[in-house]
Amino acid sequence: MIYFLVFIAGLMLACMQSFNGLLSNYIGTYGTSLIVHCIGAVMLLVYLLIKKERIRLYPMPWYLYSAGIFGLVLVAFTSVSVSVIGAALTTCLSITGQIFCSIVIDHTGAFHLPKLRFNKKRIPCLLMILCGLVIVLIN
């Protein structure tokens, strides 16, 4: 089930990037980021009110708050990218960046996540991903 949810998240990410790219043509990069985050905040508040849940803030490392900055940068960068290079190339480059950053995070156990050592058997798959990215880049 979790694999299916992650797949759906990927579909939604591609749609989000496309919509954000279109939206940025109307209201600019920063306007897009503002609208996206305001709508997300309102929807979350409505959900919390319906479910009668509270957000509990516990003492946590300061760097965990940077997730909001990453979200802001993600929306801004992909909004610009989609309108310039298109949805497919933006998504390919984004996914490639995610894969390589995730490998480093897993291998090093960064951010206090469990260490999952890099398996050399993944190298052919990573090379195929890079080849696919090059093919998308040159077309």
Tell me what the structure shows:
Keywords: Membrane, Transmembrane, Transmembrane helix. This is Transporter family-2 protein. The chain has about 140 residues and is an all-alpha fold. The protein has one domain. Helix content is about 80%, strand content about 0%. The model has no long low-confidence stretch (mean pLDDT about 90).
Q: In one word, what is the shape?
A: globular
Number of helices: 4
Q: Return the string of H and E elements.
A: HHHH
Q: SS-based structural class?
A: mainly alpha
Mean model confidence by pLDDT: 91
Instruction: Count structural domains.
Output: 1
Strand count? 0
Helix content: over 70%
User: Any idea what the radius of gyration is?
Assistant: 18 Å
Largest β sheet strand count, sense and barrel closure: none
Low-confidence stretches: none
Strand residue content: under 5%
Distance between the amino and carboxyl termini? 35 Å
List the helices and strands and how they pair.
Layout: H1 2-51, H2 66-85, H3 87-108, H4 123-138
Helix pairs in contact: 1-2, 1-3, 2-3, 3-4
Give me a quick take on this structure.
The chain has helices at 2-51, 66-85, 87-108, 123-138. With 139 residues, the protein is mainly alpha-helical.
Observed structural traits:
single chain, 139 residues, 4 helices, 0% strand, Transporter family-2 protein, transmembrane
